Amino acid sequence: MPNRGLLVVAARITVNGKEAPIAPAAPHTTVLDYLRERGLTGTKEGCAEGECGACSVLVARPGVHKPTDWVAVNACLVPVAALDGQEIVTSEGLATAGRPGTPPLLHPVQEGMAVRGGSQCGYCTPGFVCSMAAEYYRPGRCARADASVGHTAEHGPNGFDLHALSGNLCRCTGYRPIRDAAFAVGMPVEDDPLARRREQAPPRPVATEYTQGGSTFVRKETLSETLELLRELPDAVLVAGSTDWGVEVNIRSRRADCVIALDRLAELRELRVESHCLEIGAALTLTEIERRLDGRVPLLAELFPQFASRLIRNSATLGGNLGTGSPIGDSPPVLLALEASVVLVDADGEREVPLADYFTGYRQSVRRPGELIRAVRIPLPLARVTAFHKIAKRRFDDISSVAVAFALDLEDGIVRKARIGLGGVAATPIRAFAAEAALEGRAWSAETVEAAARLLRAEGTPMSDHRASAGYRSAMLGQSLLKLYAQTTEAVSS
Amino acid sequence: MSHLSERPDKPAVGVSMPHESAVLHVTGAALYTDDLVHRTKDVLHAYPVQVMKAHGRITGLRTEPALAVPGVVRVLTGADVPGVNDAGMKHDEPLFPDEVMFHGHAVAWVLGETLEAARLGAAAVEVELDELPSVVTLREAIEAESFHGARPLMTTGDVDAGFADSAHVFTGEFQFSDQEHFYLETHAALALVDEAEQVFVQSSTQHPSETQEIVAHVLGLYSHEVTVQCLRMGGGFGGKEMQPHGFAAVAALGAKLTGRPVRVRLSRTQDLTMSGKRHGFHAAWKIGFDADGRIQALDATLTADGGWSLDLSEPVVARALCHIDNTYWIPNARVAGRIAKTNKVSNTAFRGFGGPQGMLVIEDILGRCAPLLGLDPAELRKRNFYRPGLGQTTPYGQTVAQAGRIAAVWQQVEDNGTIADRTRAIAAFNAAHPHTKRALAITGVKFGISFNLTAFNQAGALVLIYKDGSVLINHGGTEMGQGLHTKMLQVAATTLGIPLHKVRLAPTRTDKVPNTSATAASSGADLNGAAVKNACEQLRARLLQVAASRLGTNAADVRITEGVARALGSETELAWDDLVRTAYFQRVQLSASGFYRTEGLHWDAKTFRGSPFKYFAYGAAAAEVEVDGFTGAYRIRRVDIVHDVGDSLSPMIDIGQVEGGFVQGAGWLTLEDLRWDTGDGPRRGRLLTQAASTYKLPSFSEMPEEFNVTLMENATEEGAVYGSKAVGEPPLMLAFCVREALRQAAAAFGPGGASVELAAPATPEAVFWAVQAARRAGVPDKDAAGNDAAGNGHAVRGNARNGRVGADAEALSGA
Fold first, then answer.
1. What is this structure's pTM?
2. What CA dihedral angle connects B497, B481, B523 and B501, to 10 degrees?
3. Which of B22, B269, B696 lies closest to A119 in CB terms?
4. ipTM given for this complex
5. Which of A169, A203, A237 marks a domain boundary?
6. Residue B245 contacts residue B113 (beta carbons within 8 Å)
7. How far does the CA of residue A272 sit from the closest CA of chain B (Å)?
């Protein structure tokens, strides 16, 4: 091997119960490449951008209902240095070695996949197995089974939520045997080692400064230390779940001198409900927010299942989605409709900026060098009529062609207040001010709605690209309002 | 019953069992080509130098800057090739080209100590280019008459007379999309050179013998100096039939020149931008029906987008022509085929191999014409089925054997799916729901099995029995997930009469079985199964002699069942292991090579006539969809399939093939949307959808909510191994029913009776425009046309603009 430079700090990771040094991996080396270099080739690369799930592995994270949760993430996106001091399990680690000369004792999800024909070429299978195992261990899985959700095409009689597999692609099976395997798994037995691990505290975040070849990955212990570092290195790349940065590294071959991790800072991981507002920490993962809110904000509850895949939501954060500032991010339209604001912080203090004033241009915002997003605030009370319409080619895990979020207050048939957030129709996420004005103070009637829909169609400057034509994008803006109206006034089955 | 199709007592074939590697798959222990890198020392990594222009002559190639990058070991260029600089079989595919023929064409490869070093080295290579005009779209190629390869013409009957006899004549155009294979494992090869300068290549290839042949000719070696092995593939779907050869040759060349193992593994974007896809087609057609809706004549020209080199485009077009009839008797036909030469990747084999494209044309025609004829689409389809006992032949002259199965599987789908009841329920639903419409459509499949080129219909196997009674089988087929190896184990155990656990299968290697055909054309189990069976029969015959002498009877009166030999009418048993040991001591040969050639095929490519297929596989499927009229978004609510696999060798495997093929077909027809930069800017010819984030495969959200697959019962195929039929490709085309259901659902938003045109793929946007058009049925559709023009590359594919069905003057006059 060539000389890869000196190791500065001993970073270590526990894989399938065995601890090992992260060196000599480069700071940009992904968990996927690290595992494969170590000979754990069950974890596969299918796309290197968190779309196919062939690289999915289990990570021990702070739990929502138990001390620890096993969450599945895309190993192709996460730098291995980000998992200093952490524990992961791969497909190889799920099975238990049998006696010499005998086959391994399969994990229940592996058994189900194997006997039901869930694998054909087998390449995506280890990733499916890991995503499925995460759902197998999810607390409250069975509580859901016989409750309101019931047994549908997407929710099994065993409480298995098929969205757990929304980030895993299979090109061979057509998915039916995989669904059958998922909907047939039982509950973990008492001495199941991974179930027992959930009862113990999760691995603590570890302060990391991992340098190789002049490039550094840093994780500080506190927000103030992080802000001090950021004042010195305003050009450092900030990451939480790395779901965006990982793509830059893999697909566009970007490399950074310094990457600063924010995802485990306690100050960025609070969720507070106050009388006048809800404050969501910027580094909480979307899955954590979804499970902690548990439907308290219906518009967010509608957003989450449509936001990328479960694998991505297990890593991605609101801070990341707003920090990236993409015009096709799915959270901004919703947060705009909720009249959310962004709490920005630097070494000198905090300021709060309404989200409607936050974006200044394509992937540009008022966030200054040295500043980071600490939290998102959503004012209370919430509007009573809300809806999120995501227009995309695929229902699970696709990027929006257009996204429209509505938050309306209807009183006695009159629209008292209307907030509409749009994504995918301009260089930034925008509010549909003209359409809002055309609704407010008027009767919630077909006439009002049609007039507002005409204005809505003219919002933004939609483009034609590989996702959709400009004409379709415009049309969908108006159609979303018509659909919302139909949904509020008719019993529409779908 | 034929010898080939007859099953003994208690056969291992016909038993449902998981994939033979299932345990290895789920534990991550199964090895794929690139997994071997981490078990190999001192591997060099290869990275392509891709030129990002659609067309141009290379005037300068400077590799020195790459060699200055730390960790770069060597740059491979055309000057390094000791043999023939060609990666294909047509000598039109230089491995290191002088002329860049498509956006992303690799002109050199950099070898580095790490992938990162190779990547940086590739970025440092300087290429000078004289840019040349490019042809990117099919329409541009047709207008410029940019074609290559054969121009087949298939004729039957008297087309002019057929049209003269027609009560209704319609014309139209239809352009439909290409499709990316998106096997989860990208192209990969790992090459080593041994002490005798022999080259050993591990390759993710469906066609090891051809990979071997091309590696040999690039290196200037004989085939016996090159061995190619394929452990398994992470999916193939035809994309690894011809395309792996060049990548294997690059690895082998690098290994030969450096003496070190060399690895090639494409990133997803490299794979998407460098390897060929399913051919998109353009079709121009004219069809005549009698007053009852029976097809009288068809005149069509199919143009396939071949890309820059021929690759497999000629046989793909031949198969498209051979399948334009699908399940319908067309007494008079004139169908021409041609291959557009465009500055894009070289399109190649993809599950169905042109068959889906040919069949899509006729299904689209019938879907568009049914309302114009005033007929229910299902009724129109049924009226045109081939009928048994009438001696009806295909337009290329083959008798349609088992034609009765077309109607039989259709009827069974109607019964299983309670179609009549559900059709009524759908009508009631639609009447009550102004913004949501449902529809149900049934389509059928008839797919010819055998390679069109007769010579490819042969296979070999090598079966070894060891002294301890264990059996090792080798055959020429490759495993890409289709379960071929599982079936081969079942065939061997059945023929030898032993339990499955006694049989093991060795990886596919060219030094075990020579001159194999590609594992393609759905033929893997038919050909290799018959060859394995043949080898096992030779061994069994020898062992029966040994057993007969031990049991004191004639060999003809000995049966070996479940690992025990018995004489008829006797209780005396001889265990398999004892039998084998006895045979060894009697110096009986315990290895045999098997061979099989498909009998009864003939094909004349010049006259485009013959009987190229051993038999046809049949199937029918019904899909129910629900469309949201606001957005065009839809769901597949339920699918019912009845498919003919003969008597299944391995039912769980076969059902898996049917389901997987169906969803892949539905992906092609509804979701998967390759887009190219067709503008005149600096990125002309660039693939816009070059990642999983932009090229969307079906996911769980696209699988039918209810999915019922039934295999046709008592369906013995006399001409194939143990009465089975091929299953790999035919089910893909069952997915036509999804597209037709979407068309009918869109129509349900309109006043009824309108002919609805639907772009392919039928994305939510395409369905939305179809809904809008249906709503305005009869009114010129300005909006949709305007939007298509605005759509990037959409104008060409949007048949709403250029593919209008027109009732011509003849029809209007009632002639």
1. 0.95
2. -10
3. B22
4. 0.95
5. A203
6. no
7. 34
